[in-house]
Design goal:
The protein has helices at residues 26-39, 61-65, 73-82, 101-105, 122-125, 133-141, 143-150, 158-164, 176-189, 192-201; strands spanning 2-7, 10-15, 45-50, 54-56, 87-92, 95-97, 109-112, 117-119, 156-157, 169-170. By secondary structure, it is α/β, with parallel strands linked by helices. The chain has one domain: Alpha-Beta Complex (2-enoyl-CoA Hydratase, Chain A, domain 1). It has a 6-stranded mixed β-sheet, sandwiched between helices. Strand 1 (2-7) and strand 2 form a beta hairpin. Helix 6 crosses helix 7 (143-150). It is globular, with a radius of gyration of 16 Å. It starts with a strand and ends with a helix.
Length: 203
């Protein structure tokens, strides 16, 4: 359900559960967290993407009812991505929802297709968001817009997400991989200390 690839210095995780809107089970989340942890010190570029029309709808419903919605594995995953010294890119092939927000917020760059929607309906569902997600979201789009998404439960489209600063580019689906390659080129060519040093200076 997740395809893990190591193509030279590019480490890629592709969520492949389109029949379930790429919803994430506990097993999938732990595998993603392990992959991101392993990539530290090895990858020069780390890419998250999905298949189908949805990047991820968040937690698998059955697993959510069993406690996944409040499981610390979400925070372990986003923390592992945020700790990467390499360039991390969320290539959002479609809609991003719920707890899946955390892994995208933890990436350095977020690019999305025009049809993508963005929502995080924890207020409606009666859960708190994962601990680091509101701070990362606020750092990108400010407190008021973060509250609109998290507390107002508003769904926004790609253009609004771009205008807010939640995503960095809107890219046609057929151009998604080319854009990832273009954004990755300088990081792949740079010495390790320069790549990690510039990233650390941008925090």
């Amino acid at each position: 359900m997740i395809r893990f690839e190591q193509a030279g210095d590019v480490w890629r995780a592709t969520i492949e559960r389109p029949q379930k809107a790429n919803s994430l089970t506990a097993v999938m989340l732990n595998a993603l967290a392990d992959f991101a942890t392993e990539a530290r010190g090895q990858a020069k570029v780390f890419v998250l993407t999905g298949t189908g029309r949805v990047f991820s709808a968040g937690a698998d419903l059955d697993d959510a009812r069993a406690g996944l919605a409040v499981d610390p594995v979400w925070e372990r995953l986003s923390g592992a991505i945020a700790a990467l010294p390499c360039l991390s890119i969320a290539a959002l092939n479609g809609t991003l929802a719920g707890g899946a927000f955390g892994m995208a917020l933890a990436c350095d760059l977020r690019i999305a297709v025009p049809a993508a929607k963005f929502f995080y309906p924890v207020m409606k569902l009666g859960y708190l968001p994962q601990p680091s997600d509101p701070a990362r979201m606020s750092a990108l789009i400010g407190p008021s817009r973060s509250k609109m998404i998290l507390m107002g439960a508003q769904k926004i489209d790609s253009q609004t997400a771009y205008d807010f600063g939640l995503i960095d580019r809107i890219v046609a689906l057929e151009d998604l991989e080319t854009t990832v390659a273009d954004l990755s080129a300088a990081a792949l060519a740079a010495p390790d200390d320069i790549r990690s040093g510039i990233k650390a200076m941008c925090l």
